[in-house]
């Protein structure tokens, strides 16, 4: 059984985000937490919901839904562009939080009765500028959008980690960002153990 599902929402396969996520994943694996990682640029999914909720989901999308259903922790890594996230990630996120899989309005299984209730979530996001600007100018619009969708499924325990200044002169070293995510992983490890 998978304890932790990691979704890498960065479509750039050459980004240092892969090395950053490696640090998170390695910390969990080194502490006997079984993880399953999905990189968005390798996932077979419909990048446009041309038929809304009547769109046929791919086999891999359904498999990821099932992995999340069984996992204790969902980790999302996503870059923030102009206050929100890349289009492919938005489409995948919408398909993972699918009606009758993550929530069911007809049977009133949403919010506190959501089908994914009691799960833990960690959102790790990278920013071109500072978190202060992100909050002041954009009011964390993308992150708030993610949290809204997750709450609909019953997930209210969401922690965030901001990796600032990816695209300006204040950019830190790779090791600095890796240290941040290892710290987040250590905190998530404690959260998982409390659930046991």
TrEMBL record:
Name of protein: NAD(P)H-dependent oxidoreductase
Entry similarity comment: Belongs to the NAD(P)H dehydrogenase (quinone) family.
Keywords: Oxidoreductase
Record keyword DNA-binding present: no
Entry-linked SUPFAM superfamilies: Flavoproteins
Superkingdom as given in the UniProt entry: Bacteria
GO molecular function terms attached to this record: NAD(P)H dehydrogenase (quinone) activity
Pfam families attached to this UniProt entry: Flavodoxin_2
InterPro entries, alphabetized: Flavodoxin_fold, Flavoprotein-like_sf, NAD(P)H_dehydrogenase_qn
Domain Flavodoxin-like fold: from-to ranges: 4-182
GO cellular component terms given for this protein: cytosol
Native source organism of the sequence: Culicoidibacter larvae
